[in-house]
Write a structure and sequence with these properties.
Largest sheet: 7 strands, mixed
Helix content: 10-25%
Oligomer: single chain
Low-confidence stretches: 68-80, 165-178, 295-304
Structural class: alpha+beta
Strand content: 15-25%
């Protein structure tokens, strides 16, 4: 058996027992020394521990790196590099002198002559606007890309498609010729424009050339241009005394005359009347007496700014039958109307049931007669007269109805029946 290593007293070198706590020779205490020997690592571990400690010291010190001043410079420059590398810390602001949009509004597009703009007023609906212009609600909805259930608002601007396009007045090349003479219709011509150019009437041209539909004239057609008959009329008159509530409009309906005719016959310059005022009213049938004045040579003369609209359809004395009949009154355009200019349609029902319809103001060149005017069970057909003039609106009355002045000659009166 291998013997235990001998233990020596560290003070005197005398051999002592391994578990002895005091040297018998010198009396030194051996307990502390024993504890130190137990706590110290062996010689085999000292070298590795020293190497590890040296490496840790070198790692902390890092003598191979820059001097403290250089390190400080690098550290101070680091925030600048970091700020540049972070996109969220960089903001670009547009200069105040550079406008982001053009302050000039885009110009309003010019509408074609068969369309107008309408600004919605309080209480108006799509159907009421359509009735005002003689068009349909669906046409207005389609022109403005609106749905059927769309609600329009006050001051909203709508494009109104008119049922008939305005036509421009051609300027024909005129050559002196005897009266009557032949005119060859050109593309774009209308019968009303030709009549205005040669100072005649649509009715005279239709009678002279056997035309039954004024809207259907074809380029290349030869028209005989004639002047309307020049007559001096002799007429009997009666005296009418103005009563309370009378107006020129009600009196004109009562006697089947136009307001312009009553004013001309009585030399009136205003539309107002006074109770007790006496008016001359023509009665009976006028007797035409041809004058001996020779017909002047036709020379194109500029017509009025707004001529009387020529009535196109229905023709004179047309007879309609049935409650479901659609009756549309058509007339020729007098050009593009100004915002305050309107066509006015005056319709009267005569006979057993007399009625004066409210004046219709419209920008269109057609108007549909309301179907509720038809009366069932009448033995004789209802008789209607209608007339179209051009008016300039000057304001509204107390009831909100338009009022104005007539700026065209008085239009021709036509008649039709409805049974």
């Amino acid at each position: 058996m291998e013997s235990e290593p001998q233990r020596l007293c560290p003070h005197c070198g005398t051999p002592v027992a391994r578990k002895a706590e005091t040297c018998l020779m010198c009396g030194a205490v051996l307990r502390e020394n024993r504890r130190r020997q137990i706590g110290l690592p062996s010689s085999d571990l000292m070298l590795p521990l020293l190497i590890v400690g040296a490496l840790a010291l070198l790692w902390i010190w890092k003598p191979w790196q820059s001097s403290p001043a250089q390190v400080a410079a690098v550290v101070s420059a680091t925030p600048s590099r970091t700020a540049t590398a972070m996109p969220t810390a960089t903001y670009e602001v547009a200069p105040s002198a550079t406008p982001l949009y053009s302050p000039t509004p885009a110009p309003t597009a010019t509408l074609p002559p068969d369309q107008v703009r309408h600004t919605v007023k309080s209480g108006e609906t799509v159907s009421s606007i359509a009735k005002l212009y003689g068009t349909t609600s669906q046409a207005i909805l389609d022109a403005n890309n609106l749905k059927t259930n769309t609600i329009i608002s006050v001051d909203q601007e709508l494009i109104i498609p008119l049922p008939a396009a305005n036509t421009s007045t051609p300027t024909p090349t005129l050559t002196p010729s005897p009266t009557p003479f032949v005119y060859v219709v050109k593309s774009g011509d209308t019968l009303s424009a030709i009549a205005r150019t040669y100072d005649t009437t649509v009715e005279a041209l239709m009678d002279a050339n056997g035309i039954t539909d004024a809207t259907n004239i074809v380029a290349g057609t030869k028209l005989t241009i004639v002047q309307p008959p020049d007559y001096t009329l002799t007429m009997a008159y009666e005296t009418y005394e103005v009563e309370q509530g009378d107006t020129l409009y009600t009196i004109s309906g009562k006697y089947d005359l136009t307001i312009a005719e009553i004013k001309e016959i009585n030399g009136l310059t205003r539309d107002t009347l006074s109770v007790g005022q006496q008016l001359r009213i023509p009665v009976g049938t006028a007797t035409p007496i041809p004058t001996d004045t020779p017909t002047p040579t036709l020379t194109p003369t500029p017509g009025p700014a707004r001529p009387a609209p020529a009535l196109l359809g229905p023709p004179q004395n047309t007879a309609f039958e049935g409650a479901d009949t659609v009756i549309i009154l058509n007339w020729a355009s007098v050009g593009i109307l100004d915002p305050d200019e309107w066509y006015t349609i005056r319709v009267r029902r005569t006979g057993i049931i007399a009625q004066i319809l409210p004046v219709v103001w419209t920008k269109a060149t057609s108007w549909r007669l309301p179907s509720d005017l038809y009366i069932e069970g009448l033995t004789d057909p209802q008789r209607f007269t209608w007339q179209v003039n051009v008016m300039r609106q000057t304001g509204v009355d107390d009831d909100g109805n338009r009022i104005g002045e007539q700026i065209s000659p008085t239009g021709v009166v036509r008649t039709f029946t409805w049974k």
